[in-house]
Amino acid sequence: MKHFIDRARAAYLGLAIGDALGATTEFMTPGEIKAAFREHRRIVGGGWLRLKPGQVTDDTEMSLALGHALLTTGGWDLGGIADNFLAWMKSKPVDLGSTCRRGIRDYMLKGQLETPYNEWDAGNGAAMRMAPVALFTLGDDAELVRCAAEQAHLTHNHPLSDAACIAVGRMVQQAIQGCSRFDLHAITRDLAAEHGNFRFNDYRGHSSAYVVDTLQTVFHYLFTTGSFEECLIGVVNQGGDADTTGAIAGMIAGAFYGLDAVPARWLKKLNGKVREEVEDQAVRLVELSPWMRRRRTDEGH
Ligand code: MN
Ligand code: MN
Question: Which domains are seen in the chain, by residue range?
Answer without folding.
Answer: 2-300 (1.10.4080.10)
